[in-house]
Design goal:
The longest helix has 11 residues, at about 40-50. The chain has helices at about 10-20, 30-35, 40-50, 65-70; strands spanning about 5-10, 35, 60-65, 70-75, 85, 100-105, 110-115. With about 120 residues, it is α+β, with helices and mostly antiparallel strands. It has a 4-stranded antiparallel beta sheet. A 3-stranded antiparallel beta sheet has the order 2-5-4. It is globular, with a radius of gyration of 13 Å. It has a single domain, classed as Protein of unknown function DUF952 (ADP-ribosylation fold, Alpha-Beta Barrel).
Length: about 120
């Protein structure tokens, strides 16, 4: 994989809880699967629309994959054509390089990100 960065999608509530805790909050899906679900830049919009379409606000948290390499695995996921990054461990707020708020297209789907501040 050549992407330098990987992204964690977080709802507004998850992002606020993560900021308060200093740790990226795991979802029920993460707990069930035993890893934190991440995406590459090329996977981000599709993942947002597949799993977060009902969320009014969605944040993308950027991580340098080289900082995560020891516990980062690229794995096949049913229904996806490319391997997805999965992190086997805990992620911390200090590891977030940047945060972005996902924009919505006129039709309501998520599209390009706008840069935000941590």
């Amino acid at each position: 994989m050549e992407d330098r960065f990987v992204y964690r999608l977080a709802t507004e509530t998850q992002w606020r809880q993560s900021q308060a805790a200093g740790q990226i909050m795991k979802t029920a899906l993460d707990e069930r699967d035993g890893f934190i679900h991440l995406s590459t830049a090329g996977q981000l919009v599709l993942t947002a629309n597949m799993h977060f379409s009902a969320e009014p606000v969605l944040h993308a948290l950027l991580f340098d994959r080289h900082d995560l390499e020891a516990r980062l695995k690229w794995e096949n996921v049913p229904g996806r054509w490319d391997k997805m990054p999965h992190y086997y461990g805990d992620l911390y707020l200090k590891d977030v390089q940047k945060s972005f708020q996902m924009d919505r297209n006129p039709g309501g789907s998520f599209g390009i990100m706008t840069q935000g501040a941590i």
